[in-house]
Amino acid sequence: KNIIIFEYKNHKRMAKAVRRVMAHHDRKESSATAVALTSLKKRGQKSAGKSEEFDDFEAFYLPSKPFRPFRNRKVGRLTSIERELINALKKVKGRFGIIGLSPASKPGTTKHEIAHALYDLNPRYKREVHKVLNTVNLVPLFQIFKKLGYVEKEYMDEAQAYLMNNPYFLKDYGLKNIERYAKVVLSLNFIFEKYTDDNYAFFKKVAWK
Asked: Between helices 123-133 and 182-195, what is the axis angle to 10°?
């Protein structure tokens, strides 16, 4: 249950805290999440070479592995915002997951990131999700994920997160007859609620000032 939710006062501060961790994760795992963040950074750069608007950066989920070199101080000097985050992880043992939220985070986005955390850290949740997803044709979803830059090993995770929380995002990207996934969506939400009962009480929350 090492899932920690960091609540940032704004999305720009949140992006500054994790953009290098995400870039490291991107190099190691080919994560589309990190690619998206990099593109946002470029979009927000000003002529002086400074960052950054990150206007679309609502939330994130990161596993523990890309934090390892930062916790071990093998990536050069940390910024004050990065150090604040890394110091908060000093007492966390074993595998963990970090969810970042800001006032820009929508309820569906928050649930989306929590679904990623459960899929990554809870094998029973993952098995139940796969059992449900394997009852339908996911090829149309996988084609969308490929266009969005996800790698194949991320497709099942993204399928459960998007179907449960952001199905009409997929429709906007060309998914037809989304109603065929209605029973799957209900089943996924049932599994999610089972593993997050009592209003996410098992998550540790850290609110930055």
From this structure: 170
Determine the Cα–Cα distance for residues 76 and 66; give it in Å rounded to an integer. 15
As beta bridge partners, residue 97 has 3, 63
Residue 201 contacts residue 3 (beta carbons within 8 Å): no
Question: The whole model's pTM is what?
Answer: 0.81
Query: What are phi and psi for residue 205, nearest 5 degrees?
Result: -110, 135
pLDDT of residue 38: 36
* Strand bridging mode 97-101 / 59-63: antiparallel
pLDDT in tens, 100-114: 988 878 878 888 999
- How deeply is 144 buried, as exposed, middle or buried, from its count of CB atoms within 10 A (0-12, 13-18, 19+)? buried
pLDDT digits (tens, 9 = 90+) for 182-203: 999 999 999 999 988 754 444 5
